[in-house]
Write a structure and sequence with these properties.
Alpha-Beta Plaits, alpha+beta, 96 residues, 4-stranded antiparallel sheet
């Protein structure tokens, strides 16, 4: 398994409970596919450098986790079909 970091930006229209539910959905997918969550960091609402889907702010979330390489595609598919996530990026990192 490789070590990954993913950052996703949620719509600023979501409340705290909806953001927590979205994070739990992502975490459960990672664990279900054989991964292990290392760290979850909620950066909070920040101003975007440029408008994305007509939003000028977004709620940033960073996850660090271990996962099989072939399961990253499924995680990014979840990001792609979830309207509440307006931008995402997943990168492989060196092990801590």
């Amino acid at each position: 398994m490789n070590f990954y970091e993913t950052i996703f930006v949620c719509s600023p229209l979501l409340n705290e409970e909806e953001i927590d539910a979205l994070i739990n959905k992502v975490k459960s997918l990672i664990v279900k596919e054989g991964g292990e969550i290392k760290n979850v960091n909620k950066w909070g609402k920040k101003k975007l450098a440029y408008p994305i889907k007509r939003h000028r702010e977004g709620f940033y979330v960073i996850l660090e986790f271990y996962s099989p390489t072939e399961k990253i595609k499924e995680l990014e598919n979840l990001y792609r079909v979830t309207d509440k996530i307006i931008r995402y990026l997943t990168v492989r990192k060196e092990e801590p």
